[in-house]
Design brief:
Elements (H helix, E strand, L loop, with lengths): L2 E9 L8 E9 L5 E9 L2 H13 L10 H12 L5 H13 L13 H11 L3 H21 L29 H9 L7 H11 L5 H6 L5 E2 L4 E4 L9 E4 L5 H8 L20 H13 L6 H13 L4 H8 L5 H7 L4 H9 L2
Antiparallel strand pairs: 1-2, 2-3, 4-5, 5-6
Helix pairs in contact: 3-5, 7-10, 7-11
């Protein structure tokens, strides 16, 4: 059977969100009867036109039976063309988790069956919640197009899953970890990550300040880093460059003064933050597991341990109040306190 397909994109008046609708017409050559197909609502005309182009390349009939996998493939081709990599990953993980029912007709999928598969695939509540959210969006789309009669994903229950969310306890780098970073500065796999981690530890920069640092802000002549953009007014400050990080400072400062210092690295763009490009390799290859802000805590803690006056630390850290330092940014190990207790 041969089909002829056509479609149109039009604006819905007075609609602020998803104001572009795509309607298509499907005609069988053996019959004069035409079938109208709604391809959904979109935020921009470009998205709507792309959805129509994808459908015209492979027109489908809403009366045909679709398996969950087939439905997902069409949903991805028309609805997930401009989403972030993280969102796309979540949808792919969901369809992998639903592998036990991916070959079933979407109209045969019940709440009970989906709940059984979800319970078997997920152990953590956040994982199950994301799968349910992706399923809900997929089934809403199927219902809108007529492939499914209702959305069973909306009735999935998350009460039986473990909630593992917990606050991260900030932890300073210890002496052994810093020695490991020093020893691996020239390693082919993690040398770059080690050098930049040491740069952050010895400047106390917030990772956002580091990403906004321009080459002109690294004043090699006077040995100062000018922090011109920070989250607070007190954060705009000058930081002396330690002799141990002068090679890194020179490399960061080389090039066009108006460029971001971050771009002088071998990494192509500043959208990849310190966690992905520094701390993930350190954890994977050296077993050093930390988050970006731990470098800043290390800077403050080691200044305190060296006896640096509190007003100086406050100035170097860019704090408006000294209470922030004692409340959040110093981490004194119990072993360091023991000798002082003995002196009482």
């Amino acid at each position: 059977m041969t089909r002829r397909a056509a479609g149109t994109v039009y604006r819905i008046p007075d609609r602020k969100r998803k104001g572009w609708r795509v309607m298509a017409t499907l005609t069988d050559t053996a019959s004069p009867e035409q079938k109208r197909v709604s391809l959904g609502l979109y935020d921009t005309k470009k998205q709507a036109e792309k959805a129509l182009q994808n459908w015209l390349a492979d027109p489908w009939d809403p009366d045909e039976e679709l398996t969950l996998q087939q439905a997902f493939d069409r949903f991805e081709a028309t609805q997930l063309t401009e989403v972030t990599a993280k969102t796309l990953y979540d949808y792919h993980r969901m369809i992998r988790d639903m592998a036990a029912v991916s070959g079933l007709n979407v109209r045969q999928l019940t709440v009970t069956r989906l709940q059984q598969v979800l319970n078997a695939a997920c152990t953590v509540k956040s994982h199950a919640a994301r799968d349910r959210q992706c399923l809900c969006v997929l089934f809403d789309w199927l219902v809108r197009l007529g492939f499914a009669l209702r959305n069973p994903a909306r009735d999935l229950v998350l009460s039986g899953f473990t909630n593992t969310s917990r606050k991260y306890v900030r932890r300073a780098f210890d002496d052994e970890e810093i020695r490991t970073l020093e020893e691996n500065r020239d390693d082919a796999r993690v040398g770059e990550a080690c050098r930049l981690c040491l740069f952050l530890i010895r400047t106390g920069l917030r990772h956002t300040e580091f990403r906004l640092l321009k080459k002109k802000d690294i004043d090699l002549e006077h040995g100062i880093i000018h922090v011109r953009q920070s989250k607070t007014e007190a954060g705009v400050r000058d930081i002396p460059i330690a002799s141990s990080i002068l090679p890194e400072a020179r490399q960061l400062a080389a090039g066009d003064p108006e460029e971001y210092a971050w771009l002088s690295r071998t990494w192509p763009a500043p959208v990849h933050g310190p966690r992905q490009k520094i701390f993930v390799p350190l954890s994977r290859y050296l077993g050093i597991s930390h988050l970006p802000y731990d470098t800043r805590h290390t800077f403050a803690t080691r200044l305190v341990m060296q006896g640096c006056p509190e007003p100086y630390i406050q100035k170097l850290m860019g704090h408006a109040s000294s209470s922030v330092l004692t409340s959040f940014y110093t981490h004194i190990d119990l072993a360091l306190l023991a000798p002082w207790v003995e002196k009482v």
